[in-house]
Structures are given as structure tokens and as C-alpha cells.
Amino acid sequence: MAGSTPASATVDPLAAAAPPVAVPVAARPRASVSPWAEAWRRFKRHRLAVLGLVVLVLMILLVAFGPLVWRVQINDIDFSARLKTPTATHPFGTDDLGQDIFARVLYGGRISLAVGLSAMLMAMVVGVTIGAVAGISRGAVDAALMWLTDLFLSLPLLPLLLVLTYLFRDALKGAFGPEVGVFMLIVVVIGAFGWMPVARLVRAQFFSLREKEFVEAARALGASVPRQVVRHILPNSLGPVIVAGTINVAAAIIAESTLSFLGLGFPPDIPTWGRILSDAKEYLDIAPHWAIFPGTAIFLAVLCINFVGDGLRDALDPRRVL
Predict the structure, then answer these.
(1) Which of 36, 125, 262, 320 is 20–30 Å from 81 (CA)?
(2) What is the CA radius of gyration of the chain?
(3) Domain CATH for 153
(4) CB pairs under 8 A, 24+ apart, for 27-35?
(5) Backbone φ and ψ of 47, nearest 5°
(6) How far, in Å, CA of 67 to CA of 104, rounded?
(7) Which of 100, 161, 157, 108 is closest to 278 using CA atoms?
(8) Considering the chain, what is the average pLDDT of its residues?
(9) 305 lies in a domain?
């Protein structure tokens, strides 16, 4: 209108009259997400990994708390119920002495899973330590440690497990008891031959990360070598290490089951999954259920752990877009 004056000399009347422009949802800035939350989001995209995690947690809860609900003793003998097929009274059937296979599988699951986790922790500690020292060092230290790693990798695993178990089993049983002594022996033997892949993986991660800009910045600010390792390099290399740890758990469960199946694991009165399979091999034609249920337990545990490892590999890989 002629003679009118804008409310402000700096405001464009056309711009002030224009309707506000809606910003698309996709264009809006996303709230910051923690690395663990992002890893969990990626892990949930892997359906087999989620299924494996659920089944594995259920198995752990079952073997941990199942004996508290299922009060049948593992050594209760009932000759009138020898080699019975699964019933409501004996969900997994009975063995040649009338012992409840379900109770023995639950008890054996505790031992097998405990051996797998303990051996994995030992292999991870040794492998991460050797790999970190080799990765941050140069020259003779790195060469000597990798020579030691290659030496252990070249050794045949199963024959050495059998020989070491045979040589030291009686001494440890006499010192710590039949169950604790054999448990310590199997964990140490399996862990002592499971650290090499972890060490090589950590060494390769250190070679890549120690030349990154954030490590060079920490070095320029005067950070010592141990601080560079603990605060900057090692936390950024834990993704592949965690994946390797899940593989070590599955390998340890298989190794323990193999030793028990061959009669060099725990004593016969301590039922592990491998020992139950060893006892059932003579009755496969008349009582296949005796071997099916512990064999299925080993199969499910190893399969679920491998699925979880695949999911963790995809979730912790920053180069993978999910």
C-alpha cells in the first residue's frame, strides 16, 4: 500500500509472507548414538545370530538352573527302567543302568560350557598379550614372538591334547581332586593351544592402528607406549578379538567333548556331553536316544556360538553398511 512502511527495514516482505518449508525427516540430523548401541542395531539385523543368541541363553539358563528344578540325581540307578525311551518321567530316556539322561545332560552341560568359556578366556588373555607386544614392537621381539606362534600352530593339536592329558591327569587328580584337577588340566591344555589365531589377529590390528592419526597425535602429546596401547590401540582392536573369542568357545567345547569321548577327559562317574556319547556308542542300535540328546546339545551349542560370532563380525565391522 502506498505510504506504508515495513515493520523492519531488514525484513523482505515476500520472504516474511512465504510459508515455512518442512524439512524431510531423512534430512534432519540424527541424535548421537553410542558405538555399542549401533553395534546392537547391526547385530539385530542378523536374524540367525539373534536366534542363536536366544537359543544359547536358554541353554545356559537350562543347564545352570535346571538341576534346581529337576531334582533327579545323576547317579540314581533303577534297573527296572534300563534303556527306556523318553517318557514324562524321563524326558530324555534312561541309560543301561536306568540313570536319567536328562539330569546327566544338564549336569554335563555345566562342565562343557564352563570348560569352553574358561579355555576361551585363557586363550584370549595369552593371545591378546602376545599379539599386543608383537604388534607394538619392532625387530627381534616381533620376530621371536611370531616364530613362537608359528611353532605352536605347526603342532598337531589332538595328539598333543591326548599326550598331555595322559601324562598330567593323575598328578592333578591327586593334588586337586578328580573333578577340579581334570577341569584345570583340560582348560590349560585347550587354552594353551588356542591363543595363536588371536595373537596373529591382534598383531595385524596393531600394525594397522599404530600408524593412524589419533595414535600419532597421542604420541606427539607425549603419551607413553603402554598408554598408547591401553587407551588408544587396544580398545579399537577388540571387535575382531571378540569374534575370535566366540570361535574359541566352540572349539573348546568340541575339544573337551573329544577328550571325554576318547576316555581321557573327566572320570566316568562325572557325566559330560562327550562322556555320555562315549557310553552310548555301544547301544546305538537298541537305544539311539542315549546318543541323540547329548549329540544334539553339542551340535546346538557349537552352531549357536558360530551364528553369534557371525553376527558380531558383521556388527563390529565399521566398513559394513547395514
Answers:
(1) 262
(2) 29
(3) 1.10.3720.10
(4) none
(5) -65, -40
(6) 9
(7) 108
(8) 81
(9) no
Q: What pLDDT, in 10s, does the model give residues 209-265?
A: 888 888 888 888 888 888 888 888 888 787 778 888 888 888 888 888 888 888 777
- Give the type of residue at 120: M
Point out which residues pair with 100 in neighbouring strands.
94
Q: Is 177 among the domain residues? A: yes
Question: What's the whole-model pTM score?
Answer: 0.77
Residue 301 lies in a domain: no
What is the extent of the structural domain holding 151?
A: 113-270
Q: Which residue has the cell 602429546?
A: 221
Nearest to 75 by CA among 93, 89, 95: 95
End-to-end alpha carbon distance in the chain: 58
DSSP-based three-state secondary structure for 94: strand
Q: Say how many CA atoms lie within 13 Å of 200 toward its Cβ.
A: 12
Name the domain count of the chain.
Answer: 1
Which DSSP string do the residues of 189-232 spell out, in sequence order?
HHHHTSSHHHHHHHHHHHHHHTTSHHHHHHHHTT--HHHIIIII
